[in-house]
Amino acid sequence: MYEKTKNLLKLAKERNTAVIAFICMDYIMARSVVYAAEKTNTPAIIMLYPEHVSIQHTAGLSNFATMVKELANEVIVPIGLHADHDYSYEAVVKTMDAGFDSIMIDGSMYSLEKNISITKEVVSKAHSMDICVEGEVGHVGLAGESDNSKEDLYTRPEVAKQFCEATKVDALAVSIGNAHGEYKSIPKLDIKRLEEIHEAIDTPLVLHGGSGIPDDQLLIAFSRGINKFNLGTEFLRRYYSAVEEYIDINKHNLDPVKIIDLPQYIQSKLQPYLEERLRTLCRF
Ligand SMILES: [Zn+2]
């Protein structure tokens, strides 16, 4: 059942757990998430990375939103929709107009003043349309650059408080030892810092760069204010492996129509992985 992401964040906060937002670039990824959520009776969010539309053209913006709503309504469990990192007011307005009820404006690469002013402008527009806004303060960088161990990029509790009071965001992405992409070594979350941020603000917190953080650390983080958890890299890697396997299995079959069975094969490989993630990490 389609549900606004705002309500899923509220539910996750009440249950002191996190809802997982899975990066999906196409129908089969989204379908795998919806049916894994149904099987485990656990809410989930389908998340679009807007550059997958503007650069890789894996889907269209509004047809992605329509597709998720249609898929979500095939099941009983609540499924949300969210757009990940947009970097400008113009881009985010386009995303909101395309039917997303939850978006992210990421001004974390700018000065705090500029980040606050861009985010505030987006929140004002979004709230007039009953759309939920995620902001970011501190900066979640790249795991490949070992940004997860650069403390100067981490979110400072007093800055998080200032940012949330000034912008009125509905969710806040934090940098606490996490980063995007493949980690070079096992990351270590700064739980003490997370606790301080959680104490300073009431806003649901979001953890980006979820692939490769050990589960024990994740479960602690989810009990200390992380209410949304973004998972992309690991999911995409599983997709790639499933395509490789399918090609390997069928390499002696020269019938080109064989391709029509690819999506279902991929779902059969992705869904168990997603079910395991939802069962292990979520406490709804
Ligand atoms: Zn991110």
Automatic annotation (TrEMBL):
Keywords: Metal-binding, Zinc. Zn(2+) 1 binds at residues 85, 180, 208. GO terms for molecular function: aldehyde-lyase activity; zinc ion binding. Dihydroxyacetone phosphate binds at residues 181, 209-211, 230-233. It comes from the Bacteria. The active site is at residue 84. One of its GO terms (biological process) is carbohydrate metabolic process. CDD domains: TBP_aldolase_IIB. SUPFAM superfamilies: Aldolase (SSF51569). Binds 2 Zn(2+) ions per subunit. One is catalytic and the other provides a structural contribution. Zn(2+) 2 binds at residues 106, 136. Its cofactor is Zn(2+). NCBIfam families: cbbA. This is Class II fructose-bisphosphate aldolase. The lineage of its organism: Bacteria, Bacillati, Bacillota, Clostridia, Lachnospirales.
